[in-house]
Amino acid sequence: SLFQALHQLYYDPNIENKNLAQKWLMQAQVSPQAWHFSWLLLHMDKVPEIQYFGASALHIKISRYWNDIPADQYESLKSQLFTHITRFASGCGSVSLLLEQLLQQQDSPGFIKQKVLKCFSSWVQLEIPLMDCENLIQAAFTSLQDPELFDTAVEAAGAGEVMPGTDSGCPCRYVNTLLKLIPPVLGLQEQLQQVRQAVQSGDMETSHGICRIAVALGENHSRALLDQVEHWQSFLALVNMPTTHEPWQMPLTLLCSGCGGFIFFLLQYLMYSSSCHQDDILSFEPDKQAVYQQVYRPVYFQLVDVLLHKAQFPSDEEYGFWSSDEKEQFRIYRVDISDTLMYVYEMLGAELLSSLYDKLGRLLTNTEQPSTWQHTEALLYGFQSIAETIDVNYSDVVPGLIGLIPRISISNVQLADTVMFTIGALSEWLADHPVMINNVLPLVLQALGNPELSISSVSTLKKICRECKYDLPPYAANIVAVSQEVLMKQIHKTSQCMWLMQALGFLLSALQVEEILKNLHSLITPYIQQLEKLADETPNPSNKLAIIHILGLLSNLFTTLDISHHDDDHESTEVKKLPVQQGPNPVVVVLQQVFQLIQKVLSKWLNDAQVVESVCAIFEKSVKTLLDDFAPMVPQLCEMLGQMYSTIPQASAIDLTRQLVHIFAHEPAHFPPIKALFLLVTSVTLTLFQQGPRDHPDIVDSFMQLLAQ
User: Which part of the chain is the Importin N-terminal domain (predicted)?
Assistant: First the structure.
């Protein structure tokens, strides 16, 4: 009855008989008798279909019913398995032929074909030569037409294309097989044309699977396929395949499921086209490079169009319904696009910037057909992506772009953010073309007052002040006034306030000492007055946060306020043209003025590690920035540190001591206070260690670093 049921399953044309046979055989596979008949079905005189059923039954019994076997029969079963595996694996062709026969038989049941495809997916991972899998891969392509087999066929076709080791050097015997795989992949175009309907219906499986197959073939065999110059048209069609259809916008349904499978694989494909593929092209000899660059340049421009379309924000109404997680997914999605554009620039160069500039210019000057803000933002995002990592100082379109930016009607936060980030990305260019600063600086200062643009506006101002500081004195008063206003209004969060102070430090560094002191007085007097008031209050959590915030503002200001320009390139013509500063360093002047106030704060907060750390940070950052210019503060700071550490030892005091030792211990004038501080810290620390160093791991770490200085 077993062989009769198998005959009905595989050869009986009556579908009812097939279904009955399948149901009976599935029950037989899990029966106790399957341990016996499965070995009989594996005899070499049986046809492949019978052998396959026997192997399948044996697999089910071993994987699900292992406990049925007595322990003393394990070795016997193991021996039988190895015997049959050796017999069936006597050659790749045997396995291949068996799978082909099962897959190509028209009356094979769907579940059998599915298992064959899964078997093939696993089998090819054993580094089977690609040419031995050709027929099976072709059969997998045919199975893509069956909706029930589609997912499994995608896995099988993709696994067959990803042959380990076949892409490096790609032996000649593989080339013909590779070329034969291109037509069936291109033949999937008709199915891919249904993607738009699939997007609208929320079913992305077809497009997802097809693009996986295209990615697998191109990604793993790009070098070998490119090397076949006479077949460039076929390979061009393969690369062009995902972009020949309408460039799909990313719907919310995809975003909710992690950007959607299809989007992910399409981005992989574009990344392959622009990175691996570009590296392969540029590694060819010059004559082939010229051919391929001419052939593929239009494709790269088309990829840019698709990427920028997909980077566009949805409508304001739709975006308003997105959750914070969905917005973060979209941000990451755009970062992937940004990375891809950088690769594309390596191939297209300045021509890409010219193309983006021309499109942006047409958008902003076409009064008859006003564009959406999303389109404008996407083009600017393309500029920003390239300018952030590529040197565009020699581009002839940047002056035009700087001229276009003020013409952008900014009525949307996302667009305004991108405008700010684009200006920031061009800050080095502005340093070389200072006459253009006034075109964009007013936009940045205006954006500072908008809390929704906090990160973009403050970071952009910081970049401009850092890169263009020697050309900013004419604008310094306005920058300081606007910054002071937004700081006092507490528009920005703590981190952005710290960035803003760093920006002002860069800005003031390029002014004369008198101007620096004047601006410092205006800028920090309100905070000093507030700190004086807080120092008189009884310590509590609220005024603790306020004290730490004010100390943080001073620390960040002094981090970048450097009139000696220690961090600048000493060959820089900008540094050479500055006059030599006379008199005490402005930072030292301010520190001396507030020193007693800081001591007063410490007297009440010495047992609070965070406040002590904030105090030490002011001096530590000032020492790192000023270096020898900090010398006037050394005696009184050493005395204060010694008193602090003797009272309550804290790691931050040791870290500041280490900085002082590093910079001033070699100078005879400062050696006595530095030596006294070092001996005191060492004595107090060793006494603390005698009581148990395990209770003070941070002090142990900082003290060891001090000794290693």
Answer: 21-87
